[in-house]
Amino acid sequence: QVQLVESGGGLVQPGGSMTLSCAASGSIGSINVMAWYRQTPGKERELVAAVSGGGLRNYVDSVKGRFTISRDNAQNTVYLEMNSLKPEDTAVYYCNFRTWASATYWGQGTQVTVSS
Q1: What is the pLDDT along the chain (116 residues), one digit of tens a residue?
Q2: Nearest Cα to 4, choosing from 93, 115, 68?
Q3: CA gap 106, 96 in Å, rounded
Q4: How far apart (Å, rounded) are the C-alpha atoms in residues 4 and 97?
Q5: What's the rounded Cα separation, in Å, for the pair 47 and 67?
Q6: What is the b/e burial string over 79-94, where b = at least 16 CB atoms within 10 angstroms of the residue's CB?
Q7: How far is CA 90 from CA 1, 46, 55, 65, 93, in A?
Q8: How far apart are CA 34 and CA 55, in angstroms?
Q9: 8 Å CB contact between 4 and 106
């Protein structure tokens, strides 16, 4: 049974920083893409950042220059370093892993609230 376990969410003030992590447990196999999505009430889930097995990264425009995604393949873990946080970054953040065998897994979600 594969599980993705997220950690690192919470409350942070505008302009602050926070790092999310997501680790896979179980026999997940070889992971192609690791990504972070976010969702606010009434809106569709949005891709925030992704990193491929080859190390290519892409970001949604609204977080470019502020967020950094990284991965540790040995630990099957992905990180999202978030700096200069804004109230509009408030959302539930979900990690997503896609394996080379085309299996997709989601984390349970972690709330990030940016507020003074």
Answers
A1: 899 999 999 999 999 999 999 999 888 888 899 999 999 999 999 999 999 999 999 999 999 999 999 999 999 999 999 999 999 999 999 999 999 999 999 999 999 999 99
A2: 93
A3: 5
A4: 8
A5: 13
A6: bbbbeebeeebbbbbb
A7: 31, 12, 27, 17, 9
A8: 10
A9: yes
In the numeric block, which tokens belong to residue 80?
A: 């999202």
Question: Would you tell me how many other CB atoms lie within 10 Å of the CB of residue 64?
Answer: 10
Strands 10-12 and 110-114: parallel
Structure tokens at 74: 């040995």
The 10 Å Cβ neighbour count of residue 20 is 24
- The type of residue at 19 is T
